[in-house]
Amino acid sequence: MSQKSEKTGVVISNKMQKSIVVAVEWQVRHGLYGKTERRTSTFMVHDEDNAAKIGDTVEIVETRPLSRRKRWALKRVVRQAVQV
User: Where are the alpha helices (DSSP H) in 34-78?
Assistant: First the structure.
């Protein structure tokens, strides 16, 4: 059995029911110049209890396809966003 992939990111949208959009950022070195640059991917994530809010840091885990774009599920909210 294969290991399910896990990622940590920040919630950028929670306007849908039972779904959130999570931005995952990582660093990669430029091939020629060697400078590190930040890259971002966005993932549609299943959030059954609507627990995550915008700005929260969350852990997501890979799952079976739940819809056309949704292949990740919320594992836990690592840190809640600061309320202003």
Answer: none
pTM of the model: 0.89
**Residue extents of the structural domains in the chain:** 6-79
The predicted pLDDT at position 82 comes to 85
Rounded to whole angstroms, the Cα distance separating 56 from 65 reads 24
Beta-strand relationship, 70-79 and 57-62: antiparallel
Q: What is the pLDDT of residue 1?
A: 61
Q: Which CATH class, in words, describes the domain spanning 6-79?
A: mainly beta
CA angle, 17 then 53 then 42, to 5°? 80
Whole-number Å distance between alpha carbons of 48 and 17: 8
